[in-house]
Amino acid sequence: TPLSVNQIYRSAYKGVVELTVSGGSQAPFGGQARAQGSGFVYDRGGHVVTNQHVVDGASSVSVRFWNGQSYDAEVVGTDASTDLAVLDVDAPASLLDPIGLGDSADVEVGDPVVAIGSPFGLEQTVTSGIVSALHRTMTAPNNFSINDSIQTDAAINHGNSGGPLLSAQGRVIGVNAQIESDSGGNDGVGFAIPSNTVRSIVSQLVETGEVEHAYLGVGVQEIPASVAEELDLVEGVALTEVRTDTPAERAGLRASTGSRLVDGQSYPIGGDVITSVDGEDVTSSEELQSMIDAKRPGETISITYVRDGDSRTVRVQLASRPS
User: Fold this and answer.
1) How far apart (Å, rounded) are the C-alpha atoms in residues 284 and 289?
2) Is residue 302 flagged as an active site residue?
3) 128-154 in b/e burial notation, b at 16+ Cβ within 10 A?
4) Catalytic residue among 104, 161, 195, 276
5) Residue from 53, 56, 195, 285 carrying the catalytic annotation
6) Which of 9, 44, 137, 287 has the fewest CB atoms within 10 Å around its CB?
7) Region 195-213: what's the mean pLDDT?
8) Is 53 one of the annotated active-site residues of the chain?
9) What angle do CA 77, 80, 86 make, to 5 degrees?
C-alpha cells in the first residue's frame, strides 16, 4: 500500500543526514571552501552513502543527524564513475537508523517519489513528485556515463546531492545527484543514480574501499533499424572511436572513417558496428555499456560486429577503466 508523503518522511527521516565538507576540490555548490550535501545511513555499522562529488578532495567531513548532533566521518571509498561515496561516521548506535534499498528495476514512469535532504543547508527538507522518465544517462564527474538514471520532478537543489529518492514504500530507489537547469535552481528536472547501481557499488566500497569497472575503450553511436539500410549498415552500435592501447584496439576493432546525414542526423560510416556481446543482441549504447558494466576487469567477452558487410566475432579481454 502506498504511503503518504508524511508517512514516508516519518519512516525515513532519522536515516537522512546532512554533510558539511571542508576542503572539497569540486565546486558543485559554488566552489566554497566549506560545502554542504546530504546522505543516508546505509547500515548499522556506521556507513553513510552520498555522492562522490560532495566529498571529493575533502579534508574533513561532519555528519549531522536528525536530532542536531554532529559527528566526524572518514571517507571509506569513492567511485567517480558512478558518483557514489561511502563514509564511516563515528556516531552512537542509537543514531544509526538505516534506510533500506528498493529495486530500481521495478520503478515505473509516473510512480510517486519523495526526496529528503538539505537544500541550501535547510536540513530535513521534504519534496515530492513523480518519476518523470527512466533510463536517462548522466555524465559522471570523470566524464563516463551513468546509465539507467531516474528522472524526477521532485524539487532538487544544491545541497540535496547525495540524499535519498524514496519510493511510495519508503525505500531508497535512487541517490539524488544532478539537475538540469538554466537558472541553477530547481526547474523540475532532477536525476538520481538508480538503487541497483548503488547496491552494487556501495557493497564493493564497504568491503574493499574501491571499485574496478570493466573497460573496452570505444566511443559509440547507435545505428537504428530505421536508417541502417540507407547507410548500408546494420542495426547496432557503431564505433566512432577506438582508443589507443585499449582492449578494443588490441582486438583489432576499427572506428568509423566518415559520416553521412540521414534526415538531418549525422551517422558514422566506414567502421565496425557491434551487433551482439556474448550472444546477446546490442541495439543501443546503453545496452553495450550495461553489458560491459556487468563484467569485471580481466574477464573475456565475445563481440560480434559487422565490417564491410561481413559479420565477424572476436574474443576481447576487458581491462580496468582508467580514472
Assistant:
1) 9
2) no
3) bbebbebebebebbeebebbbbbbbbb
4) 161
5) 53
6) 44
7) 95
8) yes
9) 30
> What integer pLDDT is reported at residue 225 of this predicted model?
95
pLDDT confidence band for 68 (50 / 70 / 90): very high
Reported confidence tier of residue 33, pLDDT bands at 50, 70, 90: low
Judged on CB neighbours under 10 Å (0-12, 13-18, 19+), 280 is: exposed
Tell which residue, 159, 136, 113, 215, has the closest CA to residue 17.
159
Residue 27 has pLDDT above 70, yes or no: no
Taking the CA atoms of the chain, what radius of gyration do you get in angstroms? 21
Please check whether residue 62 is in contact with residue 71, taking contact to mean a CB–CB distance below 8 angstroms.
yes
Cα 44 to Cα 25: distance, rounded to the nearest angstrom: 29
pTM for this one? 0.85
Distance of CA 290 to the CA centre of its chain: 12
Q: d(Cα 4, Cα 169) in Å, to the nearest integer?
A: 9
52 Cβ neighbours under 8 A, 6+ residues apart: 78, 79, 80, 82, 83, 84, 85, 141
**Is residue 83 among the annotated active site residues?**
yes
Joined together, the cell numbers standing for residue 205 give 566500497
221: confidence class by pLDDT, cuts 50, 70, 90: very high
